[in-house]
Design goal:
The protein is mostly helical. It has one domain: Farnesyl Diphosphate Synthase (Orthogonal Bundle), CATH 1.10.600.10. It has helices at about 5, 10-25, 30-40, 45-60, 65-85, 100-125, 130-150, 160-185, 190-215, 230, 235-245, 250-260, 265-275, 280-300, 305-320, and strands at about 90-95, 95. A two-stranded antiparallel sheet has the order 1-2. About 45% of the residues are buried. The protein is built from 15 helices and 2 strands. Helix content is about 75%, strand content about 0%. It starts with a helix and ends with a helix. The protein is globular. Strand 1 and strand 2 form a beta hairpin.
């Protein structure tokens, strides 16, 4: 299933969403309008709004509340990306210049704040307080996850349970919020909302592990290893597993390479070879598939429908994508 096929049950809703999302970013300040227009022009695959609409469709049908949920999530998600680029001092995102690269950090931070406030105001104006609670909780978790990662990865002595907690907060919490808010917008009870939240969390965990695998290449033909995470001293699941399987002397040598020689292509290649030879790729791939299966088990509790098929397609797309 490709993205176009996945979108089929919600295609018209996504078209309406595009207009509503654009309208939600309008401002009387010319500079802000120019920057938000640039943000809209370089949008990605919009997987998060797709999760919102497909979850709502599967749980009873898309409503006006669903459109509010999708706009709210996309506004807050975009705000976090703008802020992330400032934190990471990143010059590019999705092949385009980042906001901070074009307009400097001060303006980028203020644009992120504006988007955040637009999301909050949108939900208050529509009196969607339960949606606001679901999404605000995800933003809190994302911030905590980023800070937990910064705190724990300095030593490169990361235990697996801490890694899973970091990615649950940093990546999975927002996809979980998409699915929970979709169910909530369709009028479902708290038990179903929680079920959909958990579904999204499992998908998000698989999504992040797939991102980890991109750094190494793998048996699934991801392509040539990039080593970008190693250069940035990020601890990914394949590396954590490989380090935890190794004798103390080898572990000390590899952590030394990551900490002190991460700009040296030959040393990065050594780390990649170490991970590949230690079974790190296979282990991470296995874990990714475990989360995928947990997500599909939850989906199968819902009646068969085109939207359920598309959600299954989105889960499989998450772990089979090439970038």
């Amino acid at each position: 299933m490709d993205v176009k096929q996945i979108q089929a049950p919600i295609e018209q809703h996504m078209e309406v969403f595009e207009e509503k999302f654009r309208a939600s970013m309008k401002s009387r300040v010319a500079l802000l309008d120019k920057i938000t227009h640039y943000i809209i022009k370089r949008k990605g695959k919009q997987m998060r709004p797709m999760f919102v609409f497909l979850s709502a469709e599967m749980c009873g049908g898309v409503t006006e509340s669903t459109h509010t949920a999708a706009s709210l999530i996309e506004l807050l998600h975009t705000a976090t990306l703008v802020h992330d680029d400032v934190v990471d001092d990143a010059a590019e995102r999705r092949g385009f210049f980042s906001i901070n690269a074009l307009w400097k950090n001060k303006i980028a931070v203020l644009v992120g704040d504006f988007l955040l406030s637009r999301g909050l105001l949108l939900s208050v104006e529509k009196k969607e307080f339960r949606l606001l609670e679901i999404v605000s909780d995800a933003v809190r978790e994302m911030s905590e996850g980023e800070l937990l990662q910064m705190e724990k990865t300095r030593t490169l002595n990361l235990k697996e349970d801490i890694y899973f907690e970091i990615i649950r907060q940093k990546t999975a919490s927002l996809i979980a919020a998409c699915c929970a808010s979709g169910a909530q917008s369709a009028g479902k009870d708290e038990e179903t909302i929680e079920k959909m939240r958990l579904f999204g969390e499992y998908v998000g965990m698989a999504f992040q592990i797939k991102d980890d695998l991109f750094d190494f290449g793998s048996a699934e033909d991801i392509g040539k290893p990039t080593g970008i995470d190693i250069k940035e001293k990020k601890t990914t699941l394949p590396l954590i597993y490989a380090l935890n399987q190794s004798a103390w002397t080898l572990r000390r040598k590899i952590t030394g390479l990551v900490k002190n020689h991460n700009e040296n292509p030959d040393k990065v290649a050594q780390v990649i070879a170490f991970v590949m030879n230690s079974g790190g790729i296979e282990y991470a791939t296995q874990k990714m598939h475990e989360f995928k299966e947990k997500a599909l088990e939850i989906l199968n509790e819902f009646p068969a429908s085109p939207s359920r098929d598309s959600l299954e397609g989105l889960v499989l797309y998450t772990i089979n994508r090439k970038k």
